[in-house]
Amino acid sequence: MADLRVKGQYVGPGEKKTAEYLAQALPDEWVIFAGRKLPGPNREDADLVIVGERLIFVVEEKAWGPTIVVDDNHWYVDNDPRPNPLNRVAQVARVVASTLKRNARGYENLGRAHRVVPAVVLSHSNLRVLGGVNHDEREHIWSLQDAPSSLVGLDREFHGPSLGQARRSVITYLDDLPRLVGTPTLGTYRLESRLASAGQEQTWS
Fold first, then answer.
1. Is the pTM above the cut of 0.90?
2. Cis peptide bond prior to 66, omega within 30° of 0
């Protein structure tokens, strides 16, 4: 069982289910951070950051379904177009990678290979996923049931050394990131909580 460390509120119907399912299914040595706020002016929010032996996965969870057509710029959920969530999670993964290079001792010495991998996990219990005309089969889009084996497989197949000593620094840094102090604001408005939203935008109440 992986080490699940919950760092923020679960948002939406599937995040808690996904985090706990993956914790049960992934190897004991793996660490899962749920609801991890990242530093920076935008305070990006990662649903899950999963530290394997060689790779670090930034995962966006979606409970969309039951039928999803995945395409390039948009996905279609029961014919309702929504922005491709991979675009946002790829942006968050870049933030994670650059943050670790600056702050996790030894990480920048691992070389130029991409160690932070963006992925989307679909948690709907009756899921049916279809590929659109412009869908790239290389993208990491998994059902919740397929996600554990896919994560472990990518980690094992990575052509490079393990994270080594840098792994402890990565975990320590992600674990010790300060929680957001006080209530964030937007102009004269107070942001009480983040709501589940259909696309890339961040929705607050």
1. no
2. yes
